[in-house]
Amino acid sequence: MRNSQREEGERMAYIKFYSKEREEFKTATNTHIFEPDISMIFRKLCRHFKITNVKLEIGKMRDGCGRATYSGYGISVIKVSKKTDFLILCHEISHIYNRQKLHCWGHNKRLWKTLKRIIKYCEKKNYWGMVSQTSTSPTEGQSYPD
Ligand SMILES: [Zn+2]
With 90 as the cut, is the pLDDT of residue 22 above it? Predict the structure, then answer.
């Protein structure tokens, strides 16, 4: 496959993935988080899912965006904005989990399974209720994370 075709295929996969996850995980999408809650939830999820060597960078992304990168030396980086939401955070953590535990990358069924597991865990632990009230707001327009 030509490079541009593959890129187009990946772009389509990720657009489909994002609209599906927003549809399915409404509470996670609509529960915003700010610091220090972002770091707290991040640490709790990494500990529970045994994700190691991952750094969190806050504030370098636009609101509503997130990014997960993986370097060849084993240190992963998750970037989110100062105002993020559970869906974005769980999505980026799922990427790192899949890379570290399943050695796969991309917006596919395995990412969906991991994301669902992480969100179910947040639900079970009532993490939505744990973040400060001011960080929760109903619906607002959001752009797609990377
Ligand atoms: Zn993604």
Answer: yes
